[in-house]
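Re: Re: ligand-bound prediction request (bumping)

Still looking for help on this. To restate: I need the protein modeled with iron/sulfur cluster bound, output as structure tokens. Inputs repeated here so nobody has to scroll up.
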Amino acid sequence: MSGSGSTAKYTYGPVPSRRLGRSLGVSLIPHKTCSYSCVYCQLGRTRHPIAEPASFVPRDRVVSEIGERMAVTSPDFITFVGDGEPTLSSDLGWLIDTCKSRWSVPIAVITNGSLLFREDVCERLHDADVVLPSLDAGDPETFARINRPHPELDFDTVVSGLIDFAAAFDGRIYLEVMLVAGLNDTEVALRGIRKLAWAVHPERVDVTVPTRPPAERWVRPPEPMKILTAQRILHSAQKAARPENGVFDLAGFGTVREAIIGLSSRHPLRREQAQEVANAFGEPTRLEELIDEGELSVVAYEGVDYVAPSRATTDGGR
Ligand code: SF4
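Reply:
Sorry for the wait, this slipped through. Here it is.
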């Protein structure tokens, strides 16, 4: 196939999402701008952590780009996610409201939950349909080790903010717990998380594990028995390591290179997924050429090969 339209800068997909079906991703944040530096982050380490929201994008341009995508595709969700923590965008509320006024597609926000203690952040999320916050730790020490927060962020404040936000929010809350072997997969650690998770009263808890190359090379998913134990303790029905299935929407990309680099910079692609993209453009040899030319790197993780842009080795947080 050949793509159509201009190259997408703020949107990607729809991509198959483990938790949201076909999700049109919208990124309002410069690459790896975050209040955390999680050890499992697929975007690599956070070089410049920030905890103060700001405007990073021309919001009218973002809306027109979403409009271009919505004219040719029907996602299950418009999802604010992407290259860092979306609640750091002071444009988030305006963009959620504008999307809701123009399209009858539910809005999701995938967030690390670190800023929900702030009134302005909660107000911006008010009209979202689903908020998917993370909760990886039940105590300050584990929080510091796994999420490596901005120095201004205090565990108790973050957790209280999450609980209070959930109590006041009219939409759905899907809580995500990312398990990392040796950090938060013991029964004690999981019971600590459960205590807080129950205070949040989420509609569901999704237990996940790192399935793509993480920021720290030593990060590993727990053993299968520990994952099952976590699902039991956290009452999670989600299959933790289920890879995404489905077809990437390539209509916004003009070339194989644009498509593979665009998708893999936010969402590392399994090598076979990248090959499917090249095949869809009718250029099956192009993937190997991009690897040979040094534009793409192959990263092995848990016995699976991924491709990622060579300039930003790994990518895409939660
Ligand atoms: S996983 Fe998410 S919250 Fe954690 S550092 Fe990456 S982008 Fe930030």
